[in-house]
Design brief:
It is a single chain. A hairpin with a 2-residue loop joins strand 1 and strand 2. By secondary structure, this protein is mainly alpha-helical. Strands 1-2 form a two-stranded antiparallel ribbon. It has one domain.
């Protein structure tokens, strides 16, 4: 096989590999876009949940000017139910 034929074969393989890499890159970009969108959606949901929790915490009864923590609130509620 001549040097020109070997070079032509090698160029052909490189072109095929280049095409494969371009397709792989496009798929990876699509996956990245999907994961980024999912992350942003989850962040928005987390923010909304935190906001709802903050609102609920503000509505909880206060004891001596300090917020009652969740465990004490449950215990106080259970004690009140038993009485």
């Amino acid at each position: 096989m001549s040097t020109v034929d070997e070079l032509a074969d090698r160029v052909e393989r490189l072109l095929l590999r280049h095409g494969e890499l371009q397709r792989t890159n496009a798929l990876l970009r699509e996956q990245l876009a999907a994961v980024t969108q999912e992350r942003d959606n989850l962040r928005a949901r987390l923010h909304a949940a935190r906001t709802r929790i903050d609102v609920l915490l503000e509505r909880m009864p206060h004891d001596a000017g300090k917020p009652v923590d969740g465990a004490n609130a449950i215990a106080a509620s259970a004690a009140g139910d038993a009485a």
